[in-house]
Design brief:
This protein has helices at about 1-25, 25-65, 75-115, 115-135, 140-190, 205-220, 220-270. By secondary structure, it is mainly alpha-helical.
């Protein structure tokens, strides 16, 4: 029974290696992976642009309020306190998006290296020797390790890219689209001043201008505008965190899990050793 199990496992291992060789020469894998890397890089760059736009809008809003200090409205410090935490978070978000863009760029470069014909040729040659030795008995450890490393070089990035994009499309795409769209709207809201400057009149004295400023301030519900701004900041914080989770999942967590799974599968097949047969009981 144990001998038949060993033969079945050898056949399965050889089929695994044959499939690895066939896939190493299949260009469709690289084409799909390249498209998905490009899509991920584009998403990261768009989010980075939104982060910088939102950061600029916040800076404009804060700077605009400083100009209203002479009027005596007394809202400058409050607006700064509302926007400062979001501004810090957006700066961290922009740094993360830049890192994610670099990560996608590195994936694209490694994908090109792994898809080179020399790597596929090396996988084919080592796999043929390994399968022949394995079918006859057991391949030496150094040969199994060499094939294991070549399989990782050839397939790690495609597996990570395709699997990461599948996870994104299946579980994260809706959150990404919603958060991205809301941040576009919030960047406009954050850029609006709490009190808009009234139109300047010609031939007005200084006191007439001051009076017109005060009338404009009194005609606007400053507390309501501040409340709206605070709600916008709260929503923006939630959406920024959502986007950060999306990109951390796609560029860090999912790749680590998929790489671990690939190593476990390839290592389990290439380094498997049958259990020794039970010794006969002593009479």
């Amino acid at each position: 029974m144990r001998a038949s199990e060993g033969q079945a496992w050898r056949a399965l291992a050889v089929l695994f290696v044959v499939a690895a060789v066939a896939c190493s020469w299949w260009p469709a894998i690289e084409n799909v992976a390249n498209q998905q890397v490009d899509a991920g890089l584009k998403r990261a760059l768009v989010s980075f642009g939104v982060a910088k736009t939102l950061n600029a809008a916040i800076s404009v809003a804060q700077g605009t309020e400083v100009a209203f200090q002479p009027v005596g409205v007394g809202v400058t410090v409050t607006v700064g306190q509302i926007l400062d935490p979001l501004n810090d978070l957006v700066e961290q978000f922009a740094s993360l998006m830049l890192t994610a863009s670099v990560a996608f760029g590195v994936q694209k470069a490694l994908l090109a290296i792994g898809a080179h014909w020399l790597i596929s040729a090396a996988v084919t040659g080592v796999a043929a020797v390994w399968a022949l030795v394995w079918w006859r008995g057991h391949a030496p450890v150094w040969l199994s390790r060499a094939l294991f490393v070549l399989i990782l070089i050839r397939f790690a990035i495609p597996v990570i890219t395709i699997g990461g994009d599948w996870v994104f499309q299946r579980f994260l795409a809706d959150n990404y689209l919603q958060a991205q769209g809301e941040l576009d709207k919030i960047s406009v809201t954050a850029g609006e001043p709490v009190i808009a400057a009234p139109a300047t009149g010609k031939d007005e004295s200084f006191w007439e201008k001051v009076k017109r400023w005060k009338q404009a301030a009194e005609s606007i519900d400053v507390q309501a505008r501040l409340a709206d701004l605070q709600q916008a900041v709260s929503r923006a914080t939630d959406h920024v965190v959502d986007l950060m989770v999306v990109f951390v999942m796609q560029t860090i967590i999912v790749p680590i899990v998929l790489l671990w799974a690939l190593m476990k599968v390839a290592g389990g097949v290439l380094f498997w050793r049958p259990l020794p047969a039970p010794s006969a009981a002593a009479p």
